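Suppose a colleague, Dr. K., hands you the sequence of a protein chain of 431 amino acids and asks what its three-dimensional shape might be. Before reaching for any lab equipment, you can write down a predicted structure in token form. Begin with the sequence itself:
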Amino acid sequence: MRKLVSFLFLICIIGIVAGDDDKQICEKTGITQDSDGTQMFNIRFPHVHTSKHDQYMCTSLHVPISNVDQFIVNFIPFAKASKAHHMLLYGCDDDISSKEIWDCRMGSVCNGKSTILYAWARNAKALKLPKDVGARIGKAADITNLVLQIHYQKAMKPGETDCSGLSFKVTSKPQKYYAGIYLLGATWIKVPAHQRATSPVSCVNEVPSTLHVFAFRTHAHELGLVNTAYRVRDGRTVMIGKGNPLWPEAFYTRVGGEIELKKGDKLLMRCDYKSNRNRTTFVGATGKDEMCNFYMMYYTKSETVASHMHSCWGDRLNIKLPSSASMMCPYPGYAGITSTLAIMMHKTKQPKVPAEMHMDNMRVKKDTRKTIFAVNYNEARVKDALLDALFDEEDDLQQQQQQQPDETRRMDFIEENDEEYENPASFTFNR
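The predicted structure, expressed as tokens, is then:
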């Protein structure tokens, strides 16, 4: 099982996207100084050529020795999904291959400790970390080398090469918080031919420090419909986030604000699939297989916690997820009732669905029995709809639903929360 988990950990971000090849401008790997005192780290593949399908290639950049901490504050991808299937940036604590480029498919990217710092797929956009938040690198952070791994799903034509890569700004200015990644992933997936299926993940969070999750990203292959994650604390379930795995695989900011994870919280996640194939699909590394992952990007005050990769693999708790897990994702960064309330109370705006996502939205709407729509409601209907959503996301309220008459539950909740939800005018929600 440990070998399976380690293997899945290395190849957990894969997407299926086709597109036209663009002529590349091939830059070199290196570090440049900016006028503001920061540095730009640039990692590029030096005209790599792949001769077979599903090759995983690596190249690296050494982190200069420094007596002060260094922090990555943004990530800028230079790649097209028509060339690079996905990219992973690893931080390694030891020397890696002396080769400029090497095939890293069957082995670990790092010889010793490794940490995933960033992931890209499906033409995702650049990522800028929040103010006062940085991903710590350097000798003190046990990251002395940076390795960029690219999965090339298809063999290249004779004479064809690729120069994809990644740039990121690095500052020596001390940051108040340290950024890290927490991964939820499935070790078992089985999608029967021409059927729907789900793959659950659950565990207890054992990280000793409070984590503030501010962004998340989802991943599955071409059968994926939706990935949804929840936090359970004191019997109450709250959605961490929901995503369409066929959209550009970026880290989307959680609409409605961050969510805290504390030691002892139960973490739940599920991937929903629908197959149109004539065979059963299982978990695996290629596009013909399936994957189920949910990445949470967080910040914390603990530099020790952030310097380690945290993950949750498999369904350890066997807890039934709320019915909202089956709902499709209406927009990037969606986090259930948290997002709905934030938009309704004008604390934030509902994100627009980018043009490249619309086709997936149309497919999703046809596939699900629950339709996404926006409409104005009067005060009573808004409260009624909010209650429905809250009952979906709270296990303790779901238990009460079986014990109490419907109207009694609604009146009890309104009396306790009337001030918070008084006089909303309109909102967008799933039904």
